[in-house]
């Protein structure tokens, strides 16, 4: 009888460990999906800039800057890109820096990532995560 109880305790500890591993696996998989979306969105704005290469300097925007109003192709592209960031990523935003002399572009995409909150033990979106993409036009 004692052996059966010990076996049940060991089995229950093992099952709890497997449940914990599954939870962590799902969380890390979601983080990978979000990072992939950020990468695709960086390529999206880069291709828009390459299509409008003469006005590449007009694509510059900071993380905290409001999207420009409509009026030019670059302003429309940046506004649409910012809307895609907000729709695809949790609290997503982005910045674009263009070096007109060399044609180098640095794109930074930032979003809120899930992290284990120390005070409550629950998973909350409280960690700012960023993805930086550099390319040559």
Tell me what the structure shows.
With 137 residues, the chain is of the alpha+beta class. A 3-stranded antiparallel beta sheet has the order 1-2-3. The protein is built from 2 helices and 3 strands. Helix content is 48%, strand content 25%. It has helices at 2-51, 73-88; strands at 93-99, 104-116, 123-136. Helix 1 (2-51) runs antiparallel to helix 2. The protein has one domain (36-136). The mean pLDDT is 87.
Topology:
Blueprint: H1 2-51, H2 73-88, E1 93-99, E2 104-116, E3 123-136
Antiparallel strand pairs: 1-2, 2-3
Helix pairs in contact: 1-2
Features:
single chain; about 140 residues; alpha+beta; three-stranded antiparallel β-sheet; 2 helices; rod-shaped
Oligomer: single chain
Biggest β-sheet, characterized?
3 strands, antiparallel
* Count of separate structural domains: 1
What value does the average pLDDT take?
A: 87
* SSE arrangement, N to C: HHEEE
Strand order of the largest sheet: 1-2-3
What is the first-to-last residue Cα distance?
74 Å
Brief account:
With 137 residues, this protein is α+β, with helices and mostly antiparallel strands.
């Amino acid at each position: 009888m004692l052996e059966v109880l010990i076996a049940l305790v060991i089995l229950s500890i093992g099952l709890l460990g497997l449940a914990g591993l599954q939870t962590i696996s799902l969380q890390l998989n979601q983080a990978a999906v979000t990072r992939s979306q950020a990468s695709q969105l960086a390529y999206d704005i880069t291709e828009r800039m390459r299509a409008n290469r003469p006005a590449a300097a007009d694509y510059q925007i900071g993380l905290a800057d409001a999207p420009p109003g409509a009026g030019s192709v670059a302003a429309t592209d940046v506004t649409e890109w910012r809307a895609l960031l907000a729709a695809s990523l949790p609290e997503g935003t982005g910045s674009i820096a263009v070096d007109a002399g060399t044609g180098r572009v640095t794109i930074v995409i930032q979003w809120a990532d899930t992290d284990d909150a120390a005070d409550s033990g629950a998973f909350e979106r409280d960690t700012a995560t960023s993805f930086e993409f550099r390319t040559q036009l």
